[in-house]
Amino acid sequence: MIQFIRNILARRTFAYKARNKAMNMFSSYENFKTIRENQETKRQKENRSHEVLYFHKVDDPYSHLTVQYIDKLINGYDINLKPILVGEENPVTVHEPDLYDAYCLQDVNRIAPFYNVDFEALSYPSKNLISLANSILCNLEAEQFTSIAKEVSSALWQGQEEKLKELNKIYNATDSEVSNKLNDGNEIRNDCDYYFGSAFYYEKELYWGVDRLNHLETRLAELGVKKTTDNEFICNLNTTAPNELSSEDKLNLTFYPSLNSPYTFVSAKKVKDLLKDYPINLITKPVLPMLMRMMVIPTFKAKYIISDAAREGRKYGYEMKSIYSPIGKPARLAYSLFPIIDNLGKGFEYIDGLLKASFQDGINIGDESFLKNLINELGLDWDKVRRDLNTKKWKKVLNDNCDDMYSGNCWGVPSFKITNSDGSDPYYVWGQDRIWLLKEEIHRRLS
User: Fold this and answer.
1) Distance between CA atoms of 216 and 213, rounded to whole angstroms?
2) Omega before 414 cis (within 30°)?
3) pLDDT tens per residue, range 107-122
4) 240 assigned to some structural domain
5) CB 331 within 8 A of CB 357
């Protein structure tokens, strides 16, 4: 019954006050700074070293990427890195397990070369090999972990059973020891309010994989523990796409946003920049927020998502300020106008205006006076557009958009799809983290 009530509250308009309060608290830059300052004061008072936890999951493709940089992190910063072996993700945090597994494998195959990492696995390792890998890593000292974990990970993802068996003769643990180790690791991870592998934790803040390692590096450098005086990060992408690209040909870029997604808000500025700098036809296909698609996001995951998106927004000069979540009636009213506005050629601009209102201006986007002003700012006729307000034709449009997004193994937002001008050869990616990868694909196709 309690979970049922929570589910209802997560989706209904009447829970907006509590939801808005939580979202603003998690995204607040003042809270962010205060937590960091308090933790550093506490660390100094307790005379603790700069201890960084690293959660490693052997059969997580992203962990294979991240573990390649552990030694560089240790060598570059005066830290005490503590590896934590973890097992399965918390199931309440993975909404589409099959799509998630398929996408993660594909994503790491795509991005690994840009991090100078070898990864060409076409499938996940067998349970037997996973057990061997965990047994090898189970009882290692922290000083041993980095080099052996990289060796184990390479053997695991390349299916080198004999190599793992040889290592297991030297480093081994009983099934009971492995089980206890993974359970303890999961408990530590859960206590840090996290749910996946391939993540770092330092003094009340989480950093997922190579995508967020720069945030950890920046924080450590600000604390004066960087061992060198240069401003270089240890983890950088080796991209080839130019900042601007000109071509007589254009590709189609489909953008799948949702109105309650902080990552979608962060992505909007990047999409505008991409539209300005690259030869693309932008197609906007909004989908319902996950909470309105009958998915429940636990509080600890929501906290990480919002705080991380806010951190990313600050990094890219698009800061969240006052948030008013549109879940429920506000979203339905705003979405009801999308089809006609999109037909009038202003679909992206409309979504962008709604996101800015929700994540910067703290405005209820379901308010009719706000919608009227926004439509007028877009240069459209409010009297014509308002005829569709609160009608239901938008539902099929958004459902079709969602089906299209799912067909590319993407279920979350923002997602993107590149096709040739005739709609052929679709290339899907998920997340504002991968806009650089979109540029690489556009550059590859048009160069």
Assistant:
1) 5
2) yes
3) 999 999 999 999 999 9
4) no
5) no
Which one-letter amino acid corresponds to residue 308?
D
Q: Report the domain count for the chain.
A: 2
Residue type for position 51: E
Angle between helices 29-45 and 16-27 (to 10 degrees): 50
One domain for residues 318 and 210? no
Q: Rg of the Cα trace of the chain?
A: 23
Please check whether residue 336 lies inside any domain of the structure: yes
64, 207: one domain: yes
Rounded CA-CA distance 372/29 in Å is: 31
Strand partners, 52: 81
Looking at residue 10, its pLDDT comes to 45
181 and 312 within one domain: no
Judge if pTM exceeds 0.70.
yes
Same domain, 207 and 292: no
| φ and ψ at residue 254, rounded to 5 degrees | -95, 130
Note down the domain range covering 201: 51-222
Rounded distance, CA 189 to CA 423, Å? 43
Asked whether residue 278 is domain-assigned, the answer is yes
Distance CA(388)–CA(342), nearest Å, equals 12
Q: Give residue-wise pLDDT tens across range 413-444.
A: 999 999 999 999 999 999 999 999 999 999 99
Amino acid at 192: C
Per DSSP, which regions of 77-139 are E strands? 80-85
Residue 84 pairs with which residues in a beta bridge?
Answer: 55
How crowded is residue 145: how many other Cβ atoms within 10 Å of its Cβ?
21
- Looking at the DSSP assignment, which residues form a beta bridge with residue 430? 415
The verdict on residue 437 lying in a domain is: yes
